[in-house]
UniProtKB/TrEMBL annotation:
Signal peptide: none
SMART domains membership: HTH_MARR (SM00347)
InterPro entries: HTH_MarR-typ, WH-like_DNA-bd_sf, WH_DNA-bd_sf
Name this polypeptide is given: MarR family transcriptional regulator
SUPFAM superfamilies noted in UniProt: Winged helix' DNA-binding domain (SSF46785)
Xref: Gene3D superfamilies: Winged helix-like DNA-binding domain superfamily/Winged helix DNA-binding domain
Annotated keywords: DNA-binding, Transcription, Transcription regulation
Gene Ontology MF terms in the entry: DNA binding; DNA-binding transcription factor activity
Residue ranges annotated for the HTH marR-type domain, each copy included: 1-132
């Protein structure tokens, strides 16, 4: 189906802009939210685990984590290896996650108005398959 990428990309930028505005109350951006979301859903995590999940360089994740530490949203805890940085949410981070999760869920519900449950399920199942196909292609290079 020609034009699917254009349709996706025309949605991406307005969505990220809206999310950034929604998160700005807490001095957050969507890129910082990704780290919070990952830790909340996977427990204490290393920088490598987070960078692998989002296919982002480790120094980029390190900068995000430093910013979240400055905001007292995450903290470093001892890992198995002294060289390994393990990050977890602070109590403040847990509270901010709860509030922002509600706001993001409300946004998700608003933008999905008029889209049937079946259409939503199909999209929810299809997007990871597209990502997987892209990642396989990158691995082949």
């Amino acid at each position: 189906m020609e034009g699917i990428f254009q349709r996706y990309l025309s949605l991406y930028r307005p969505l990220i802009t809206t999310l950034n505005e929604l998160l700005s109350t807490y001095e957050l951006s969507y890129s910082l939210w990704q780290v919070i979301f990952y830790i909340k859903n996977n427990g204490p995590s290393t920088l490598v685990e987070i960078s692998n999940q989002y296919d982002v360089e480790k120094p980029t994740i390190t900068r995000r984590v430093h910013r979240l530490e400055d905001l007292e949203i995450v903290e470093q805890i001892p890992g198995k290896d002294r060289r390994e940085k393990v990050i977890e949410l602070t109590e403040r981070g847990e509270e901010i996650y709860k509030v922002c999760r509600i706001k993001i869920t409300n946004l998700e519900n608003r933008v999905m108005e008029g889209i049937t449950d079946k259409e939503q399920r199909i999209m929810f199942q299809t997007l990871p398959k597209i990502r997987s196909n892209l990642m396989k292609r990158e691995e082949e290079k």
